[in-house]
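BUG: 3D viewer hangs when loading the predicted structure for this chain

Environment: internal workstation, default settings.
Expected: structure renders.
Actual: progress bar stalls at 90%.

Input used:
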Amino acid sequence: MARFRSLLASALLIVPAACGGPGSGPVDISVIGTEPDLSPIGLRRVPVAGYGVIAATRAGLVGFDAEGRLIPALAERWVVTDDAQGYIFRLRDGQWSDGSPIAAPDVAAALRRALAAARGNGLGPDLAGIRDVRVMARRVIEIDLDAPQPDLLSLLAQPELAVAVGARAQHHAGPMEIRRDHDHWFATLVPSSASGHALALRFQSAQDAVARFATGKADLVLGGTFGSLPLATRVAMARGNFQFDPVAGLFGLDIVAARGFLAEPANREAVAMAIDRDALASAFGVGGWSATTRIISAGLDGDSGAVGERWADQTLDQRRAVAASRVKAWKGAPVLVLALPDGPGADILFQRLRTDLAAIGITLTRAAPDEAADLALIDSVARYPRARWFLERLGCAAHPQVCNADGDASVQAAIHAGDANAAARLFAQAEAQITAANGFIPLARPLRWSLVRGTVSGFSLNPWGWHPLPPLAGAEASNPN
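Structure tokens produced before the viewer hung:
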């Protein structure tokens, strides 16, 4: 690994400023991750690496621009009913890729299929309140809700809810055409769009993506996480190529087996108390990575501020003394198994956690393939930046291992509350209740990074952690009136 970093660092000092961009051929983009499967079956579980491809070829009712703001897509405009339980969309006058007109019956049927598929993945809790998708006129559909969902538009802009028609979902109305060209995917704006330049997309391992950037073959690397960060920090930071998205979400340890030492909430809390989060974040060498003990990212909509960081009145040594006393009171020396993904970032995380837990008398081991684990890492970006997203992810329906039924009840009461202040109080109450179960041990905010050359246009930081392709090709997006 040291030799790999040395070679990349040397290469970065001698490569040209860029190898692509407007007027000089396609923008060469390395995407960390596996290629998306564009078949109907594959679209049921879209890998994050493929979000840009799906969103570029299969438009949803709405989409995101480069900065993560909502823009029209299949729907040219929309209104919300007075009770906030209905969204009415007027579809644009356009065609599918086979030349047939975009019409409400086709869009409604495709959206129902996408909703049914998405309910089986991570979007399930967010979509539970959608009651029906109805056709109102040839170019008008309505989505009915059981309760107000102020973030419905953000959900509809997710790639999983992009739609296509045809027996094999082969006809779309997205802004780009993407085809295979030897070792990469070639993406171009469709003829009816504004003129722009092509994109050459390569789905690669993090090591290969960073190497291509360092040797001047890639203009842009997308899809970086904490796990791949160490591969890039020593070769790109000095050039100012790093860009970190301001994402919120869950990054921490999930209790996947509440047995043995972890059967008791107080013992699970002991594990949480032992961790030196600031040292963990510092070990990655990136300033500003926010450590936290809260299950909700601070400062989001729905966060009243009533719940603060845990153990704020105790030093790390004091916390560890309390935690060690609980370990000592338990029968035997606890041994916990942690499941982590592969990658140098995960290696750093494991070493830090093993040291922290050893300080209170717990032995931490790393799960081998197919080995049952007690703990597992969650690294998930919020689909919308509100307290509700976090609390529903840790509710009993989505997180049955360790949950709090009273917390679930408080979340539901907040969703149906009559005013914002009452909802904020109930969400704070739910956070306190779910936190007390200690079923999830937060460590920090998720970390998402890209490598970007100065000549690349159309790239902006956004709160979603993935980047739409049309702006990178020079397309201009418009916001609704």
